Amino acid sequence: MTDLQQGMQCVIEDGAVIGRDVVIGHQVIIHKDVVIGDGVVIGDGAILGKSPARSKTSNLHTGELAPLTVGAGTVIGAHAILYKGAALGADCFIADQAVIRERCVLGAFVVVGQRSTVENDCTVGDYTKLQTAVYLTAHTTVEDHVFIAPMVTTTNDPYVARTEARHEAILGPTIHKAARIGGGAVILPGIQIGQEALIAAGAVVTRDVPPYRLVMGVPARVVRQVPEEQWLFWPEGSRKE
User: Is the pTM of this model over 0.85?
Assistant: First the structure.
């Protein structure tokens, strides 16, 4: 630990590993099962390495959790909570009051907006952006370069908390590379959103979305192809002219 800048009234438990040139704000709590890379900045009141808790009626199974790891150059906002068992890549930006749950894996240069929640067992790819107050439900996969606008809600329980069958059916959506989701959209459980697809604001997505297609409405329906000039990635086997 070299050149550590630490605010007042912090708690850093024995066993935490802190890299070089780390900046820690006031009243930060860092639990023992935490590994922090070089050049990380941690805002006031953040909690790192929190162990998950569950209600008496919850079916959450935590098991043994690996240490929380925070990649070099990551910025963690004020009052953010990062759970034990999560892994963040380099140069992420976790905004104020965001929550990253156990067994989540975030790539490099990921943005998680203010008050957004990434529930347990999610994967988020490189350069993906979750804007303000996004809810990423447990067991969701988001690939690289995805953009998710404010207030988007994803779901993972097709039985909406009724019948025992739901326990085997829990699955969040899979959002493929460079897809974009407009503000306030709702994505139903298990939905596949194709590469470069675009979901209009306020849409309710009840079926899989093909790659390179714009969908809108309640329920969402395909309207047209996403304009080629907006594509970051072209279909496999083709090339940009």
Answer: yes
